[in-house]
Amino acid sequence: FKGDPKPHFNVTKLLDLGLHAEAEERYRHTLERKDVELGPLHPSTLWTVHNYAPLLFSLGRQGEGLDLARRAVDGFTQVFGADHPHTLAATEMLEGMLAAQQAAAPPAPEEAEQVAAKQEP
User: Is the model's pTM score more than 0.85?
Assistant: First the structure.
């Protein structure tokens, strides 16, 4: 990729230093450039999407993270097929993010009532 041979390495260093906002900005900028210069379905672009998604998710931007995770799954499926290791890795990441979101979500009102009823003597 022109101008930045190791963008993931640089982002990893930022994350290791706890500079999450800077890492997010770096990923966003890199993805914007790759989308234009390489195209949205280029494997390098898709890996950037794949790596950027969990960062957004962990920063509390779950909707954006999930959208990018779905984009990675869709893109890898189009380029490599459903059974390719890249597609399977992206699918596993998306499933993990969805499970984390569900685990963190407050229970639905009827579930909360059921739990409260079970706790009553």
Answer: no
